[in-house]
Amino acid sequence: MYFRLKWFGVVSLLFLSACSSFAPLATMSGGTEQQLVARLGAPEMRRPMPDGTTRLEFPGGPYGRQTWFVYVDAAGQALRSEQVLTEEHFNRIAPGMAQDEVRQRLGRPGEVLTLGRSRGVVWSYRYQSPFCQWFQVEIATDQTVRSSGYGEPPECDRPNWFLFSR
Q1: Residue numbers in the chain where pLDDT is lower than 70
Q2: CA 75 to CA 146: how far, in whole Å?
Q3: Is 65 exposed, middle or buried (0-12, 13-18, 19+ CB in 10 A)?
């Protein structure tokens, strides 16, 4: 019995550490770009900013619920970081906005769905929420936002078999 509890504790600790390993360190300011890359892997995008800094973009993958933007100066020192997959950032997306601007504000989408009849695409972003939902942006063929809003991802659309089983 003791062995099972000990094994359960070790496995639980591994799962918890895996869930938290993607987030940049709380004390990342003052760290270096090399430390970031060693911890998070290569950034998906390096974007020069108007103020002379460089923004490194670290998406969490298709099922990831975090995308971190980390700003570094010319010497490679991390100045600040922010998690951009939040409702605050989503609410800034408006119809008529350019596709490139959405990409600059939210980073790479987790999923891209092509709409039928050449109507454009839908970009989907999973994010941390107490509800099973994602944020979606419909991009028209002229590469502008047609609409945006919250929806239910496919993994949430499952039958409640345990409620109705006999």
Answers
A1: 1-29, 158-166
A2: 40
A3: middle
Predicted pLDDT at 48:
96
Evaluate whether 124 touches 117 at the Cβ level (below 8 Å). no
- The long-range contacts involving 53-59, CB below 8 angstroms and separated by at least 24 positions, are 53/79, 57/107, 57/108, 58/22, 58/24, 59/107, 59/108, 59/110
So what's the pLDDT on residue 26?
52
Element (DSSP H or E) covering residue 18: helix 2-20
Q: How many CB atoms lie within 10 A of CB 116?
A: 5
Q: Residue 41 in 3-state DSSP?
A: coil
- Structural domains of the chain sorted by starting position, each given as residue range(s) with its CATH number in brackets: 24-83 (3.30.1450), 85-166 (3.30.1450.10)
pLDDT of residue 23: 57
The answer to whether 24 touches 40, Cβ cutoff 8 Å, is yes
